[in-house]
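Ticket #4471: structure export looks truncated?
Reporter: QA, pipeline team
Priority: medium

Steps to reproduce: submit the single chain below to the structure queue and open the exported record.
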Amino acid sequence: MQTLKKVDVVIVGGGWAGMIMAKEIATRTSLSVLLLERGGPYQGLAANHDAKDEVDTYVRHRHTENAADGLVTHRRTPQSRANPIREFVGLPFQGTGMGGSGDHWGGTSPRWTPESFKIATHLKELHGASKLPPNLANQDFGVTWEEIEPCYMRAEEMMGTCGKAGNLNGKKIEGGNVFEGPRSKEFPSPPHTMPYFPLLFAKTAKEMGYHPFPMPSSTLSQDYTSPDGVSSKGCVYCGHCSGYPCHVGAKASPNFRLLPIVEKKKNFKVQTHANVRRVVHKDGKAVGVTYLDQSGNEFMQPAETVVLAAWGLNNTRLLMLSKTDEQYDPVTGKGQLGRNLTYNMGGGISFFLDKPQNNFMGAGGLAMGIGEMLGDLGDEGAKEGAFRGGIVFAYNQGGSPVLAFGNGHIPPGQAHSNWGAEWKDAAIKWNERYVSFLNTGNCFAYSHNYVDLDPTYKDKWGDPLLRCTYDSTDADLKQINYIRKKNIEIAKAMGGIGVPSGPIQGRGPGSPSPHTHGGAIMGLSPETSVLNRYLQHWKIPNLWVLGANAFPQADEHTTMTVLGLAYWASDAFIGRYVKRPGALS
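Actual output as written to the record:
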């Protein structure tokens, strides 16, 4: 193993969290910053244009972590056998290469609600502990809305997030999300021009007494220049957004919004194709990380401070492989590392309309939503065992002709086979009429859902895979079906064809999804969390861990809260830790 020259700060991961931390430290201090990225370098907008290959993206997943190299295993209960996940299901968000998942995310950018950050206290005060689901493991974040809101605002201004305020400093504004937490400023960019389907949804929802609003999106509705002086073009609605890098720079990416700033700094460097395998620590202090290059050569990178900012589950796995903490035991409740595995609940539906919707055009966050099911679901929801929800929205993210054409996009009875002339005619007619509502909502943490190292399966380097033990609960199913019922009501009022009927029977997939959280959570005590409220490791103060792994539970979309906490952590690091290294209180 070759030992390299020591740096002040080494950051693992070139996605949103890592690039925010790198940019803030490199521009606000003289500390030397080295960013290690396991994938390749950013190739520029021209390469992004050439990357619009649906088979390469959605079938071969060449822009993501290679599942064959080893991702995770999954089981429903500790008594079940865990099986390795060797094939992605749904949209593959576990990115690799500069920008990480932030280079091919969809751009949907809602904030969480104020009570999301103190949810354990809030739910007990609202419902009483006896009425909540059993085995609940929710925790307060340790950060308040008043502390995180300015960080949300910085993230939105950096990305140029477009939308319409519904709660501006406590004043409710019709046309925006009146159920959102009070925001200090209007959105940096105005809402997108909406296509047919979201507008029909908004019209119908308003007639039914809901309060529709344009979904916040970090795909620019017009040309924009950030406070850092980075300029980008507005969206061209090419229809290749979610799952793809943007070829005009309209969809916010670390490669567009942050890399141009930080790569000019002499105290910042990037090393790509660096697969970090361990955090090296001794006597309560991190001394660096080890990594492998493309050829399998191993290096020791010494550093005064280590920042983990990879995909959340990879952060947790690195801590486990590095033996930084005691493994969580669901039987005894002892140990903190691995607990509170969560992922966003759904409740969305798909159906058909009688007119073409121009689905071939769109953008990842192009949607109209309603906020009545965001946060607390009120007495009606509580009576059905549904306590918290998320925004319901009708979106048009663009067509995927290779995968979408005829793949379930035909109403029942329109074709008697899945091939042949009759099937082709039906597929051509109905593909442009196929629409969906999406809900990516709350997920409570339970004591039986956790991660640890798999004793059987290993990655190609011989290290154990991360094992996810996750089973959705009856309470999860009640929440999904409560929101699903509301969706069905709206779809029928829109004149939907082939609208689903009745509740979902049986529990959901239970396996890890793109929006996966927990494992190395934050909190107010080392007895209940791995990280303190600043995302600093309790036992190793010069180790910081940024990402969705820090969420004690899930609520709405993940990205904006990851970014907000990254700004929150960077301020604590620069404003306090650099001046006096040690544990922050």
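Status: closed, not a bug. The export was complete when the record was re-opened. Leaving a note from the reviewer for reference: Residues 2-577 form a domain with the FAD/NAD(P)-binding domain fold (CATH 3.50.50.60).
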